[in-house]
Write a structure and sequence with these properties.
The structure holds 2 protein chains of 2 kinds.
Chain A lengths: L1 H14 L1 H32 L6 H17 L4 H24 L7 H23 L17 E4 L6 E4 H23 L1 H11 L1 H6 L4 H27 L12 H8 L4 H27 L4 H15 L14
Helix pairs in contact in A: 2-6, 2-7, 2-9, 2-10, 2-11, 3-4, 3-5, 3-9, 4-9, 6-7, 6-9, 10-11, 10-12, 11-12
Chain B lengths: L1 H22 L1 E3 L11 H22 L6 E3 L9 H11 L11 H14 L3 E2 L17 E2 L5 H12 L11 E7 L2 H4 L2 H11 L2 E7 L8 H10 L3 E5 L3 H12 L7 E3 L6 H5 L9 E4 L8 H11 L14 H24 L6 H9 L2 E2 L1 H6 L9 E2 L12 E5 L4 E3 L8 H18 L11
Parallel strand pairs in B: 1-2, 3-4, 5-6, 5-7, 7-8, 8-9
Antiparallel strand pairs in B: 9-12, 10-11, 12-13
The chains are: A mainly alpha, B alpha/beta.
Chain lengths: 317, 431
């Protein structure tokens, strides 16, 4: 038994290094995608202290809008900005109809409101788009769909061009986001609001504007996530489920940290894949990915309750 | 004064007449799921069911003049919500359709107490075939074990001994539905000397099955059989195409043979096969009537193109089975507004002969089958369908499952169920 846990997995890794590279690549791609979803949660939490339960359904809504517009005859190059427009309208509506009337309400009320938004978008989306699986307009958006094949160590490694695009796209998106948050006036306002709501308001920062901007950015991230995941397995309401993969990432990285979302996402993506392939499948019958990330996050929380990069809150009584 | 009296009399008569009107409806609730991760499978099935009932209401004024009400209750394929829906709709139901193996298993003991027949065509617990033990549950026209047997027969060219020394992976949803074929497959693997490799796919991993397909790459199974549902099918087919797993060695159960899932991979899915007890036939009379009276009349929720698909037309067949059970009960008991207990008798005496299938306007869509008091499945057998890059085509004649392997297992599992749920009533009427 000890041999199966401590020696055999590593022997398998070194025995088939090409396969190990494939596992690491798949883990990296998953990790980038988890990080992307987690970022949507972090941004909204940072600026408004709301845990946005609706992030998952926003992914579905954005992807369905994009594909739906294309199916209605709108060319892909035009469907993309139009979808962004729809996400902006959604952000405005959420701010106006849901968030504004709930200013100064306890956090739990705002959280419950996002559950309401989720249920509304599920019903609304189903009425407009139907429940059928739709094909993502991957090629029409100019995303390559072929694959590169290599023979490292005399073995076989396949890299999907679509996955490379997803990784590059995610890196560019995160870099742009960091630049926006750190260098622009609006970005600084968002950070100020995240640090201290009342202090930010007292210096004239508009809560309404910031919320619209932040929910819109979360919408942009949702669209990017929807395109990437949708190109892998179609666009349907099932995309909502992937949002749950972000929960352990947030536990691990901290709810308030952009860096935490990225590092947490990558760590979970790679580690859960390694564990599943070398320990989970041979010893536990597989499907360990459903719980491994949560266990990992819980272990981290034992030592760092605020997550790896979260802020340590000390309250004096 | 006379006017007031007249109005009062009219109102009173409407009030008292209302229960009579209300009775003239046959309630066949559907615990459907049009939202959530399985909506992609659930929506066309629910549309097909509803459109068939609506067509009968439009064309014939219902069934023998009694309107059919196929009210849906949304479960999202969630077992807890499914049980809630069952409780909510059971009041005036003549049958219930739980639409998930998980929900079926939960509702099974309740239906015995409430005396409402469960109609679970092509799904549920395979041992429900045993009508003596599962008096109130029906899974015509073929069970999952029938499907598993036919799939294994297909990959072994009709002789399971040909699989000796080979490896067969079972890529399945980690859910009661996905685990259903395992007992039979394990038994057959031991008997015929092949290795069975179950590969579970969790709900959250349905769209990112890279770990499962890495395992397939490492284990190099000779065949992959899929018990997929909803988004899992699309996820698996995409990964299979990505890893270049030979499609002619990849086969699925009937719920993994959905046009919309295959369209995700298109040409790359060419050669993929699925066992199916239904086949679409747009020219069948019932389908033409649905097109004319429901779809073209703008009374359907079906998306453009959905009418032609395997799942939509399977939904039609499922509704037809329920309606036929009611019709048989009406004829037997000489009443139009039958009770749930009478419909149970009807479902136990379904006779989908070639002639009756034609009479119903469903020719070519389902193989003949017949249920009995002891056999609640009927065992129609199934076709093997193959994806040609754009649509499913028939790739075999109707194939039959290995009864010698299945029936003893049904008996064992039914007995185990009754033991585990003691005191479980066993019918003494069936021989």
């Amino acid at each position: 038994m000890l041999n199966d846990i401590l020696i055999k997995p590593f022997a398998d890794m070194f025995g088939a290094p090409d396969f190990l590279l494939q596992v690491l690549w798949e883990g990296l791609v998953s990790g980038v995608l988890y990080a992307l979803i987690a970022l949507g949660f972090v941004l909204i939490y940072k600026s408004s202290r709301i845990f946005n339960f609706a992030q998952g359904i926003m992914v579905v809504f954005a992807a369905l809008t994009l594909v739906g517009l294309y199916e209605k005859g709108v060319p892909a190059w035009m469907a993309l900005p139009l979808t962004l427009g729809v996400m902006y309208l959604l952000a405005m509506s959420i701010e106006r109809v849901v968030l504004r009337p709930l200013v100064n309400q306890p956090d739990i009320i705002l959280f419950m409101a996002t559950i309401g938004i989720t249920l509304f978008l599920i019903g609304f989306g189903e009425i407009i788009f139907g429940g059928e699986n739709k094909v993502m307009i991957t090629e029409q958006l100019g995303i390559p769909t072929g694959s590169w094949e290599f023979e490292p160590f005399g073995g076989f490694l396949s890299i999907e061009q679509r996955d490379v695009t997803a990784v590059v796209g995610a890196v560019v998106l995160v870099a742009a986001l960091l630049l926006f948050l750190n260098k622009s006036k609006m970005g600084r306002a968002i950070r100020a609001l995240g640090d201290d709501h009342q202090a930010a308001l007292s210096v004239g920062i508009s809560l309404s504007t910031i919320w619209v901007v932040v929910w819109f950015i979360a919408g942009v991230i949702a669209l990017a996530t929807g395109i990437v995941w949708g190109s892998r397995a179609g666009v349907s309401f099932a995309l909502e489920v992937i949002a749950y993969k972000a929960l352990p990432v947030l536990m691990l990285g901290g709810l308030e940290s952009v860096l935490g979302a990225i590092v947490g996402g990558l760590a979970i993506g790679i580690l859960e894949k390694l564990f599943e392939i070398y320990w989970g499948q041979p010893l536990l019958g597989g499907n360990t990915e459903t719980w491994f990330a949560f266990v990992l996050a819980l272990i981290v929380l034992l030592f760092r309750p605020q997550g790896l990069f979260g802020e340590r809150i000390i309250e004096r009584v | 004064m006379r006017k007031v009296l007249k109005s009062t009399l009219l109102a009173t008569s409407i009030l008292f007449a209302a229960p009579a009107f209300a009775q003239d409806v046959l309630h066949v609730p559907n615990l459907s799921y049009r939202t959530g991760p399985f909506a992609t499978s659930g929506t066309p099935l629910a549309n097909g069911q509803l459109d068939y009932l609506n067509m009968l209401n439009e064309r014939d004024g219902g069934l023998n003049g009694v309107k059919l009400d196929g009210t849906e209750c949304e479960t999202g394929y969630n077992t807890e919500k499914g049980v809630e829906c069952y409780e909510k709709t059971k009041g005036n139901a003549v049958l219930t359709q739980p639409w998930s193996t998980g929900i079926t298993l939960q509702v099974l003991p309740k239906s015995h107490v409430d005396k409402i027949p469960i109609l679970a065509p092509g799904y549920g617990f395979s041992a429900m075939q045993d009508g003596k033990t599962f008096e109130w549950a029906f899974n015509p026209p073929s069970s999952y074990w029938d499907g598993a047997s036919i799939l294994l027969s297909t990959i072994s060219d009709g002789n399971l001994d040909n699989l000796k020394g080979k490896k067969v992976a079972l890529l399945h949803l980690d859910h009661p539905y996905g685990k259903e074929p395992i007992p039979l497959m394990e038994q057959l693997a031991a008997k015929h000397g092949f290795t069975l490799l179950p590969i579970p796919v969790g709900l959250k991993e349905m769209q990112n099955q890279s770990a499962q397909w890495l395992q397939i790459r490492r284990e190099k199974p000779d065949f992959v059989l899929m018990w997929g549902w909803g988004a899992m099918n699309g996820g698996a087919l995409t990964e299979a195409a990505k890893t270049k797993y030979p499609m002619n060695q990849f086969l699925g159960i009937w719920w993994a043979g959905h046009d919309a899932d295959l369209k995700l991979v298109g040409e790359a899915g060419k050669g993929y096969r699925a066992v199916s007890w239904s086949f679409p036939n747009n020219d069948a009379k019932a389908m033409q009537d649905i097109k004319k009276l429901v779809i073209d009349a703008g009374k359907s929720q079906a998306a453009p193109g959905e009418f032609d698909t395997v799942f939509y037309q399977r939904g039609v067949l499922i509704a037809a089975m329920g309606v036929e059970g009611i019709k048989v009960a009406q004829d037997k008991f000489g009443t139009k507004v039958v009770t749930a207990e009478q419909v149970r008798w009807g479902l136990e005496n379904l006779d989908f002969s070639e002639a009756r299938i034609k009479e119903l306007g469903l020719d070519g869509m389902i193989p003949p089958f017949k249920t009995t008091c002891a056999d609640h499945t009927g065992h129609a057998g199934a076709w093997i369908l193959e994806w040609d890059g754009a649509k499913f085509i028939k790739a075999s004649d109707v194939m039959q499952a290995d009864r010698a392997a299945i029936d003893p297992l049904v008996e064992v599992k039914a007995k185990e169920y009754a033991e585990a749920n003691k005191p479980w009533p066993i019918s003494t009427e069936c021989k």
